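Hi R.,

Here's the chain you asked about this morning:
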Amino acid sequence: MNRINLSDEEWLRILANLKKLTGIHVGQLGTCRQFISACLWILRSGSQWRVLPPTHGKWNSVFKRFSRWCANGVWEKLFGHFSEASDLQDVSMDGSVVRSHASAAGGKQLCR
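And the predicted structure, written out as tokens:
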């Protein structure tokens, strides 16, 4: 599975849900797909908005649209829908890497 770009199947699933949301104007499909890809790139890379590659559009325009979608609750609605139908293929939890604070061992002398 490609984690860099949206597949056509992923995009169609997102688009179908975006069209159901009230108050959201999808506009040109190619531009909207580019916007979603830009947001995913930022989230996956952890980079600043100003570092967004030009192939994803102008960073300030992407940031403003992202902020509007946040204010309108679009992301929460999308995440809510997709979390109900998640396949959990990329989720794993291994207790050997979970770190706890030293006081979690029960030693009172460590907590002062």
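The first helix runs from residue 8 to 20.

Let me know if you need anything else.
M.
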